[in-house]
Amino acid sequence: MTLSADVDSILQGIGVYRDRYRGGERVVQSPLTGETIAQVEDANPDSVTEAIGQSEKAFLAWRSLPAPRRGEFVRILGEELRAAKTGLGRLVTIETGKILSEGYGEVQEMIDICDFAVGLSRQLYGLTIASERPHHRMMEQWHPLGPVGIITAFNFPVAVWSWNAALALVCGDPVIWKPSEKTPLTALAVEALVRRAVERFGGAPTGLSTVLIGGREIGEMLVDDARVPLVSATGSTAMGHIVGPRLARRFARAILELGGNNASIVCPSADLDLALRAIAFAAVGTAGQRCTSLRRLFVHRDVYDALVARLKQVYATVQIGNPLTSSAVLVGPLIDGAAFHRMQEVLAEARKLGGRVIGGDRFETAPYPAAHYVRPALVEMPGQIGPVLQETFAPILYVMKYSDFDEALALHNEVRQGLSSSIFSTDMHEIEKFVSMAGPDCGIANANIGPSGAEIGGAFGGEKETGGGREAGSDAWKAYMRRVTSTINFGNDLPLAQGVRFDVG
Asked: What's the 3-state SS for 258-299?
């Protein structure tokens, strides 16, 4: 079966209308082979305006449903995702190049966040506050905010949508989704699953969930439209520098999930067997195309030679190829030729600065001359200079020695991004300092696991040029709601706060 036929079988099985992915002007190619697998139609400005208008009307109806009833819709959506997990997970692999277990894992993450959101629908708690005035009660409530724009990147084409959508929907907000133009098919598949959930639920308003295929101009319309009070955007720091100020100009809210130049510190007491496995997954998993991928590794000089020798062996033997052809494959392709050429430019710069590069070359796979498979690159650097200070979306791991723990922490925090971090140590003094306020200036700080592989139970996001946004667990739901403070006087007098007197008669 060709990939195109495979895609057709999956989409038809899920219920995507054929005219949604055949005959359009935007060509969709699979990074697995480089071949065209679909052609989709972009939204136009009029259809975007209409979709936002429908979402605005849907909000007025959806916000009035009790939150547990909204949770019931998300529960049904989770059931539809469970039923479609195999097909949708395979489609994620075809469209992004991830190995199959990661494709299935991404859909499982969608299911997990739906489960989380269903429980949350009965826990949108406010506060009762003691008033200083007699016969007065104060309270804080959380109300639905309005239509939520969601802009996602290619590397997690469906999970990031679900992090936002599941919470937004139980909070009373419709969602408008602009997926990456590199991965529109998975979005169309999810659109069909949402449609199934709407049919089963009964009574959901038109415009509750919308998919808008297209390029940058579609995202710009979401960002600039005053009817969209919140936009959650995932992508590069460069994108965030554009989106953030534009939202701020109209006082809209932003959830920005941007770049991550993530690092791990390997201490003298580390369990090197454990560290080796964790580092390998974090650095080469998803071909280094996760925002949480490990890019910088600081290794104490006492264990440097032992660990790096074993890392070189892993890099030399890790299986690269089309994950649909063998379950032993652990590294799929880069998303496209532009990613490959950027990787080569960065490695050339590292060599000029004294970096010793192992791997990084194109991995020739005879059946797929248009695809871009590469050997993961391990780069021993003389210091944190040049490209080490940048995020490159490719499997490049820079390794550097350190002597003093505080020195390693300072180097860790020297980059502009602040997403994820980890330490490998069995010394509790080091571990506790690492996760304290004196440790990494990141949103995620792990011990004895890598920086990659977050769970939906914890809020996901980072600091500095990572954008500061949070999605998924904890109290991230509050970003999708507006807070109202109310004071109720149930007495017959009107005492004023702070002892103010204002007698008018």
From this structure: CCCCEEEEECCCCCHHHHHHHHHHHHHHHHHCCCCCEEEEEE
The C-alpha atoms of residue 347 and residue 282 are separated, in whole angstroms, by: 19
Q: How many angstroms separate the CA atoms of 144 and 175, rounded?
A: 12
Tokens standing for 177? Answer: 């989704």
State yes or no: pLDDT of 429 exceeds 70: yes
In angstroms, rounded to a whole number, what is the distance separating the alpha carbons of residues 236 and 180? 12
- What does the DSSP 8-state code read for residue 331? B
3-state SS of 161-183 is HHHHHHHHHHCCCCEEEECCCCC
Instruction: Express each pLDDT in 94-152 by its tens digit.
Output: 999 999 999 999 999 999 999 999 999 999 999 999 999 999 999 999 999 999 999 99
3-state percent breakdown (helix, strand, coil) of the chain, nearest 5: 40, 20, 40
Q: Is 480 helix (H, G, I), strand (E, B) or coil?
A: helix
* Residues known to be catalytic: 257, 291
| Cβ contact 178:235 at 8 Å | no
DSSP H helices, 397-488, are: 405-412, 428-434
Which two tokens mark 136? 């007065």
pTM of the model: 0.97
Task: Please say if the pLDDT value at position 420 is more than 80.
Answer: yes
Q: What is the pLDDT of residues 450-475, one digit of tens each?
A: 999 889 999 999 999 999 999 998 89
Structure tokens at 431: 């571990």
Backbone conformation region of residue 298, classed left if phi is above 0, alpha if psi is from -120 to 50, else beta: beta
In 3D, which of 205, 222, 206 has the Cα closest to residue 214? 222
How far out from the chain centre does Cα 199 lie? 28
Residues 404, 406, 411: CA angle, nearest 5 degrees: 95
Q: H-helix or E-strand containing 436?
A: none
DSSP letter, residue 157: T
Q: Does residue 382 contact residue 354 with C-beta atoms inside 8 Å? A: yes
Burial status of residue 147 (CB atoms within 10 A of its CB: 0-12, 13-18, 19 or more): buried
CB contact at 8 A, 161 and 152: yes
3-class secondary structure, 225: coil
**What span, in angstroms and rounded, lies between the C-alpha atoms of 327 and 309?**
26
> Distance (Å, rounded) from C-alpha 225 to C-alpha 32?
37
Cα dist from 277 to 105, 129, 471, whole Å: 19, 50, 27
Sign of CA dihedral 447, 453, 456, 462: positive
